[in-house]
Design goal:
Elements: E1 3-7, H1 10-13, E2 22-27, E3 33-39, H2 44-49, E4 59-64, H3 68-82
Antiparallel strand pairs: 1-4, 2-3, 2-4
Length: 91
């Protein structure tokens, strides 16, 4: 599926595609994944904006999927594999 990387700023997040479900990663200065989440079609920008000021980061990377179920499965795999710092344990 399609991926895109932008600065972790409100004005840059608005440029992200919002037409498909996504998995997003918030990255640190050193490109470490500090948080992974998923968002439904139509909620991509809004969902990522909720983290600004709460979860520190410098970039956001999204990967689009054809269904929210696919996105949530990928999200769970990433979290279990990389254990991002700001994801809650047990998700």
């Amino acid at each position: 599926m399609s991926t895109k990387k932008v600065n972790y700023k409100k004005e840059d997040i608005k440029d992200l595609p919002n037409d498909k479900p996504v998995v997003y990663k918030i990255l640190s200065k050193s490109d470490e994944n500090v948080y992974t989440g998923s968002a439904k079609r139509g909620r991509v920008n809004e969902r990522i904006e909720e983290h600004i000021g709460v979860i520190p980061g410098t970039k956001v990377v999204i990967e689009q999927f054809s269904s929210i179920d696919e996105a949530r499965e990928k999200e769970a795999n990433i979290i279990s594999r990389s254990k991002p710092k700001y994801n809650k344990a047990g998700k």
